[in-house]
Design a protein that fits this description.
The protein is built from five helices and no strands. The protein is mostly helical and 129 residues long. The protein has one domain. Helix 2 runs antiparallel to helix 3, helix 2 runs antiparallel to helix 5 and helix 3 packs parallel to helix 5. The protein is flat and about 45 Å long. 29% of the residues are buried.
């Protein structure tokens, strides 16, 4: 395990790890396309890519909660796939948001912005599916 803090609290320090993640996800999307992955899997990973790119663009200017972006995207994908019975996922996302507040890692506005961004990025799944 790499020693040091597990979370990157300084916004400008997030850019390099997020950019490397972006390269990885782009490579994954390319492989999924070339290998003929099922449409749903391809759409899910492209939605993840949209969320990552959006988060990276916002992070350059403002700090948002990446945790809540992922949680918001997950809840939206589950809602699109399963319909309304996603209460457990909503509760888990709410717990993640609460923990970020308790840890003083984010403001409520940063949590809401991250959640909205993730949920909006997940709509890519619906467009491609």
């Amino acid at each position: 395990m790499i020693p040091g803090p597990r979370h990157i609290r300084v916004r400008r320090q997030r850019v390099v790890p997020m950019a490397l993640s972006l390269v990885s996800v782009v490579a994954g999307v390319a492989l999924l396309h070339v290998l003929g992955a099922p449409r749903e899997v391809f759409a899910l990973v492209v939605a993840m890519l949209v969320g990552l790119v959006s988060s990276l663009l916002v992070t350059v200017v403002r700090q948002i909660s990446i945790h809540m972006s992922v949680a918001g995207g997950t809840v939206m994908i589950l809602l699109l796939v399963l319909g309304l019975p996603v209460l457990p996922a909503v509760l888990i996302a709410a717990a993640a948001g609460w923990s970020r507040l308790v840890l003083k890692a984010h403001t409520p506005a940063q949590l809401l912005a991250g959640t909205a961004l993730g949920g909006a990025a997940a709509l890519t799944f619906a467009l491609l599916n």
